[in-house]
Write a structure and sequence with these properties.
Blueprint lengths: L1 H24 L21 E3 L1 H14 L9 E3 L16 E7 L4 E7 L3 E7 L3 E5 L2 E5 L4 E4 L5 E5 L5 E7 L1 H7 L4 E3 L13 H6 L19 E2 L1 H14 L8 E4 L14 E7 L8 E3 L3 E7 L2 E5 L2 E5 L4 E4 L6 E4 L3 E7 L1 H7 L4 E3 L6
Antiparallel strand pairs: 1-19, 2-3, 3-10, 4-9, 4-11, 5-8, 5-10, 6-7, 6-9, 8-12, 13-14, 14-21, 15-22, 16-19, 16-21, 17-18, 17-20
The structure holds 2,5-dihydroxybenzoic acid.
């Protein structure tokens, strides 16, 4: 039986080779010869960018390049497993941006959702669709799809923040558009903290009609986020893998702040040794307070304030905290849940 099979395979092989060559001229390939593995995960690998390494390079960029030359003075964080991509993960972008007193980052808009998480310094503002908000460390600031935005600085010390965008998703769909504003900056046309007043007090305009799929808030201030997190740290529950983890909510929908990006903050008790966890959403994390470590199998990254690292899809990790710690994060979970792809798993015992 097996001899018969191999002799017939040998006889048919030259014909199969001719067949393969014929198919190639038609831009077609046989599925039964596909080598691509059908399984979770992708080429992105775990990686960390320490603030002690990145901060001096940002200050150097501020000496070497003006904001006239570089419309945004940003160091992009590129995953070592995705060389040439400019992306930290296959679904989300991360960059570290620095702005000096007196500088502006010119107004533009793009068909990608953007957000900032402020790491250091005060006195910088972000203008979005005519509203200007001051940004302070720990604040999470939104620039939704196709909104005009520019940044400026009226303070006295460098300001550094983490930029997050869903560029890879827009690029994947071939739906990336971008436009410069006619002037360098846009006029302020709204009252101070207008979005907060309209949408930020558990009240909404009774006939609210928003064409936006993103949160109508412009800023989620850290003082309030932190206070809530610390109160909940006493009330619990504390998840075995994630500590006390909250998601930032769109007050109009109850959903995530963006259609593509989910945004989170978590508190870890001192001595926390998290259970092994994996999920299909690629996640970028940033330490806001305290110190800890994240282990991907035998690879362990120590983290402290300002460090940024990525957890690629379906790679198991464990988070530990040496001291009480607060970690900000964002991922493509919003998009994956909307499309029905998202899965997670907390592994019991010593697996992973
Ligand atoms: O601040 O508008 O890191 O448009 C990349 C693209 C920041 C921004 C980035 C951008 C911005």
């Amino acid at each position: 039986m097996s001899a018969q099979k191999s002799s017939s395979t040998a006889a048919v092989e030259p014909e199969r080779a001719r067949y393969r060559a014929d198919l190639l001229t038609l831009n077609a390939k046989p599925l039964w010869e596909r080598t691509m593995v059908m399984g979770p995960g992708n080429d992105a690998v775990p990686a960390i960018w320490h603030y002690r390494d990145m901060r001096p390079q940002l200050l150097r960029a501020a000496e070497l390049v003006t904001t006239e030359e570089a419309e945004r003075r940003v160091l992009m964080l590129e995953n070592p497993g995705l060389p040439g991509s400019t992306y930290i993960l296959t679904s989300v972008y991360s960059g570290l941006q620095i702005i000096l007193p007196g500088e502006i980052a010119r107004a533009h808009r793009h068909s990608t959702n953007a957000m900032r998480f402020i790491l250091e310094g005060g006195g910088a503002y972000s203008s979005v669709e005519g509203e200007r908000v001051m940004m302070n460390p720990g604040d999470f600031v939104l620039t939704p799809y196709w909104t005009w935005h520019d940044h400026g600085h009226v303070g006295s010390e460098p300001v550094i923040w983490l930029d997050a965008l869903d560029n890879p998703v827009a690029k994947f769909f071939g739906a990336m558009f971008r436009e410069n504003y006619a002037g360098e900056t846009q006029p302020v046309t709204r009252a101070p903290n207008e979005a907060e007043t309209r949408y930020g007090a558990h009240l909404l305009p009774v006939e609210m009609k928003s064409g936006s799929r993103s949160s109508p808030l412009m800023l989620y201030p850290y003082d309030r986020t932190r206070e809530t997190l610390l109160k909940l740290s006493r009330l619990g529950p504390v998840d075995p893998a994630q500590g006390v983890k909250l998601r930032y909510a769109n007050p109009a929908s109850g959903g995530y702040p963006f259609p593509t990006i989910a945004v989170f903050i978590q508190w870890l008790p001192a001595g926390f040794a998290g259970a092994a966890y994996r999920a299909t959403d690629g996640t970028v994390m940033c330490c806001v307070e305290g110190q800890g470590s994240i282990a991907f199998g035998d690879r362990v990254f120590q983290f402290e304030k300002g460090d940024v690292w990525c957890c690629p899809p379906w790679i198991t990790y464990r988070i530990s905290a040496a001291s009480e710690a607060i970690v900000f994060s964002y991922s493509d979970r919003a998009a994956q849940e909307a499309l029905g792809f998202w899965r997670e798993e907390t592994l019991k015992g010593n697996q992973g």
